[in-house]
Amino acid sequence: MRHARRRVVRRVTRLAAVGGLLLGGTMVTHAVASEPGTPDAVPFSTASPGDGAAAGPGAALVQRLGTSRTAGTWVGEDGRTVVAVTDQEAAEEVRAAGAEPKMVRHSMDDFDSATRTLSSAPRVPGTAWLKDYRSNQVVVRGDSTVSADDWSSLTDVADGIGDFVRMERVEGAFTTRLAGGLPVLSTAGRCSAGFNVTDGEREFILTAGHCGPQGSVWFSDSGARQKVGTTVGGSFPGDDYSLIAYDGGKAGDNAGVVAVGGNKGVRITGVADPTVGQRIFRSGSTSGLRDGEVTALDVTVNYPEGTVGGLIESDVCAEPGDSGGPMFSEGIALGVTSGGSGDCRSGGITYFQPVTKALADLDLKMIVAPGAEGGGGSPSPAPSQAQGVTAPDAATPGSSTPVRGILPDPSTLVSRLADPRNVGPGLLVMGGSLVALVASRWIRAEQDRKAYRRQYSATWG
Q1: Which is more confidently placed, 63 or 222?
Q2: Do 174 and 167 form a contact (C-beta atoms < 8 A)?
Q3: Domain boundaries 17-48+176-402, corresponding CATH code
């Protein structure tokens, strides 16, 4: 059942989103043709960014036992928390807390020492490393752009660390997911919006940092007539987040909702850090709603543009244009799309900037959705703070809400792309081949959207 459900969602909507209404996954209605009224009171998430308790029920155990006696925590297939431990006394404490211990050889201290050594070696673009809690190994990956000589040199470094470092070559290339979609455009590039956030007075879009430098001006249409806002801050490389200030200061209605296709949206009700093994969902303007599993935390990726650390890794797919799009589960905001390798036809690896880190650095709060009756609802607790952790096969995107006008009329799609007046800043007139590609994607998506709606209609109404 788990695999059947995942196949349905992973095949869902490859959206050919253009123009002003769907900006990545977030409804950003302030910048569109008709602006609905802003709610009298917009609730904010009170989740504490970077709060260790939000990273899963095993996080408190790991913190209490210490890095010399533990080596990570994850969610098992049955939803039970697993904690890697290095001694029997720690295992007994884990059992007493209601979690499942797993005895391992190497501690988190060993992992940290290994990654410090890798970071001090000469930088090789196209490589990444992570702490694989479940195998008790540090994994070093090299994509197809890494030369044999560079890979051999990095292998020598790994051999010097110890036999718990595993070397892997992967297909494709680790790239930031910039370009390819048309939801948010500027001379800096094209990206998807992530989540709406606020400093208590002004409202912003949180998206990927590589999408554009400070001062980039963003539009919701390829004709540069509907201004969204301007990039006012961020961090890349090092981190991968940036902030787009709304033109006018407010996001408008549906600010706490992320769109997932089929005229449906998901209410965002809080913020947390994910747990390894957790089922997550990602929405992007190129490939729509996709689901996968968190496979690693605190990942370092050496993109061609620079090194980014502290990323979340998942086996969910993503494609160019999905950069900055939201990653969430059970209505809890978790990350924004950074980059990866592969695509949604053959599968791949995708990396996400944790939302908690970005909010903490920027001193902002997430805008959460009003309650079902339209009032200001209280933020939901993180999944880890509720009744245990949801088993991966039972997890859903979150509470559904209808959203209006988030998809372009397919009858106008080709004419809008072919209109020379709709050429965005810095873009050339799109040829007939691109029109045919986008149109064919739209047609192929119809069957997938229907399958998606059938799958979730029972639980989402």
Answers
A1: 63
A2: no
A3: 2.40.10.10
